[in-house]
Amino acid sequence: MSGSLDLSSARKQLQDSLGDDMTAYLQNLKLWFKQKISKEDFDLEARKLLTESTVHLHNEFLLAIMSRCQSLSSSLVPRESSVSGRVSDQSRIKQKSKLRRKSTSSRSTLQKFVPSNPVNFAPQASYKGGEEINFATRELAVPDISMVQGRMLVCAWETGLEDVSDTAVKLIMQAIENQLKNIISQVLSKRNGYKLREKKFKYAMGTQVLNPYLRHTSQINDTSTESEATSITANALHIPSRKPPFDIGSAKAAEQLSSAQFPASKGPVTLFELLETLQLYRSSIASHSVYAPAIERVIHKLWHPSQEEINQEHIHHQEVTIKQLHSQSVVR
Predict the structure, then answer these.
(1) What is the 3-state secondary structure of 276-293?
(2) For the segment 5-30, what is each residue's pLDDT rounded down to a tens digit?
């Protein structure tokens, strides 16, 4: 609660000082979150809207946002990490105590003043949780919960809301993971074979498709596609269905492999396959405001160099190798 109170008070003070310019400030903040402008550009635009006496409100507001997002992400860290953190802190304290003891002994042995640069002994500035901050565009990873919370806060302030609850952030994070899971499963199922359990659930992704031109392909019965709890006997009685023994299951698997098609090895998933999947399964992203920018970004990333650029790059490599050979010959 203290983090939310600090953030709301910092935002209220900043809004009181900006007035009608708060909309432009939030727009710049949103552009910075989307990495369309740099941090320096955002600070420059903020200083244009603020006076010299109110610039500190901008810094306090950003620190409140970061502390709020980091508090939620740190609350989701398992207990093992906290225990390891305590152990590491204790080891650091022991190391510092040893260093201090050594320094005192060394000082007692020294009789003359030795000049030194004080900058070498100054502690490095660091903030809590700085080593846990990750950037999705740099690491090509899924946005973490702190980044999602920051963007949700900006969207909520633009629409007139005061705050965003932690439960809503967690639900949005689960929705993002489910959305990505569905898109990845659609891409993989389009380029590879798979099985259907009860004609609904996809499993065994990457299974080879049976060759329809073989004579005994139609006689192969895969019992793993049904999950019936009971089976009916000849006397019309329900009995619990049992799994086939290991030897029968291995024999059926060998029969399926012998009648399957083995295409050439495939490389990693490309953007062309992603674009084709999104165009084929339009319902994979229900919102059109999200679907259209996603298609535009995929098409924008499908850039490839022209033949002239490839030739220029080849000539550049040749010139570099010639210079290296010439320098080696001169040295000899």
Answers:
(1) HHHHHCHHHCCCHHHHHH
(2) 588 888 888 888 888 888 888 888 88
The CB-based long-range contact list for 265-273 (8 Å cut-off, 24+ gap) reads 266/191, 266/192, 269/187, 269/188, 269/191, 271/298, 271/301, 271/302, 272/302, 273/187, 273/190, 273/191
Helical axes 166-191 vs 145-158, angle rounded to 10°: 120
Start-end of H helices in 131-165: 136-139, 145-158
**Helices 22-33 and 2-18 meet at what angle, rounded to 10?**
130
C-alpha dihedral (194, 197, 199, 203), degrees to nearest 10:
-30
CA distance 148 to 323: 50
Chain Cα centroid distance, residue 256: 38
Looking at the DSSP assignment, which residues form a beta bridge with residue 159?
none
Asked if residues 25 and 57 have their Cβ atoms less than 8 Å apart, the reply is no
Q: How far apart are CA 200 and CA 197, in angstroms?
A: 6
What CA–CA distance (Å, rounded) separates 273 from 165? 37
What's the one-letter identity of residue 33? F
**Residue 287: strand pairing partners:** none
**Location of structure tokens 């390891």:** 84
Sheet strands (E) in the chain: 195-197, 201-203, 230-232, 238-240
* Token couple for 133: 């901050």
Looking at the chain, how many residues does it have? 332
Predicted TM-score (pTM) of this structure: 0.53
Structure tokens at 200: 């609904």
Cα–Cα distances in Å, from 284 out to 179, 267, 269, 270, 291? 8, 24, 18, 18, 9
Interacting residues of 295 by C-beta distance below 8 A, sequence separation 6+: 275, 278, 279
State how far the Cα of 276 lies from the Cα of 295, in Å rounded to an integer: 10
Give the C-alpha separation, 254 to 221, whole Å.
13
Q: What is the pLDDT of residues 138-159, one digit of tens each?
A: 666 777 788 788 888 888 887 7
Return d(Cα 151, Cα 33) in angstroms, integer: 7
